[in-house]
Amino acid sequence: YAMLLSLIFLIVLVAAVVGFVFRHEIKTNFESNLNLALKNYNTTVDQHSEAVDTIQRTLHCCGVQNYSDWEKTEYFAQKGIPQSCCRNQDDCSVEDLRDLSRAKLKVFVDGCFFLVTSTMESKMSVVAGISFGIACFQLIGIILACCLSQYITNNQYEMV
After folding, report:
1. Is residue 95 part of a domain?
2. Is the pTM of this model over 0.85?
3. What is the pLDDT of residues 22-36, one digit of tens each?
């Protein structure tokens, strides 16, 4: 049992170190995937499109760097900026969303990339604290399992 807990502890430790070392690559990868999701955005049932809509509604943002990123997409040529960018759903018409200058007054102007990364970085201390707490419990479990193993081994010789 102590060996199994030690193996899990080492895997979590390696994952934390790799995540810390490659955090810049994670950001770059997220930005390129968000750009790709905007480029391939459509109204059909698509997980990437739904994720973009959810991010934009939840974080009150639009596009990758700002709302004008939608101008470069195929979706903008057909329908304008998506409804998920609207500040007020009732006050957002299709005509407003097709014109960037009018849309600026109706949609969130901040980009999602900065908001997502800053939200993740602000929550990183909570994640690190919880991970540290779990690691402490694993170490206590490893120590107690070794003590129990030692106790059982010592008592087997005394029973004869």
Report:
1. yes
2. no
3. 878 888 898 999 888
